[in-house]
């Protein structure tokens, strides 16, 4: 993707209007921060704030303020066939307005892209290209996280579950029970487990086991701690529990693993 021009947090008065029946010779992304009026297939649509639209090259563009102020982030860019395939794989809709809910993360990325675009820093074009890829991946995540709750609440719940996973992998020695984790998020246990797996593709117990085994492997490789100490620091009740799970998952005992290093 090649960025042509970009605007961050641009504001316009009530008379603002864009009317391009033949579109442009580039793609246009709009992150819409205030209510606005769009025309799609000849139909006038009033869209909510915190929406987006991705116009393809040549697609008709009509949008205007809906109220005293119109604010958006935007950028024009060109794509090659590989970029088109990339956006298609991410299942991002084109030429239609879509509501997102919380857009703060996406807007921050656009802010960073705008900074790089206007800077003379080394490798800024490479940085911009990576930012654009990350931006569309993050946009796709936002669209398809699949949480079974209203979109206003989805972002908060998603972030909370992200923090649960960070906790699992950073503090395996003090992971609460699945029931307690669900309670902390004000969720029932079954809903928590279902949502966790839907987001990460693995169930929570698998992550807990992997986290404990990773900590045990790290300690076996970098310390001379006893198995009892390693077990305690990895979240196991006993060295026997550690040995049994280690052997079952990795095919060798902790002692055999350490000797092979």
TrEMBL record:
Domain called HTH araC/xylS-type: residue spans: 177-260
The family database entries (PROSITE patterns) matched by this protein are listed as: HTH_ARAC_FAMILY_2
Protein name per Swiss-Prot or TrEMBL: AraC family transcriptional regulator
Q: Which organism is it from?
A: Lachnotalea glycerini
Give this protein's Gene Ontology molecular function annotations: DNA-binding transcription factor activity; sequence-specific DNA binding
Q: Which UniProt keywords apply?
A: DNA-binding, Transcription, Transcription regulation
Q: Pfam families annotated for this entry?
A: HTH_18
Q: Which PANTHER family match?
A: ARAC-FAMILY TRANSCRIPTIONAL REGULATOR, HTH-TYPE TRANSCRIPTIONAL REGULATOR EXSA
Q: Which SMART domains match?
A: HTH_ARAC
Matching entries from InterPro entries are given as: Homeodomain-like_sf (IPR009057), HTH-like (IPR037923), HTH_AraC (IPR018060)
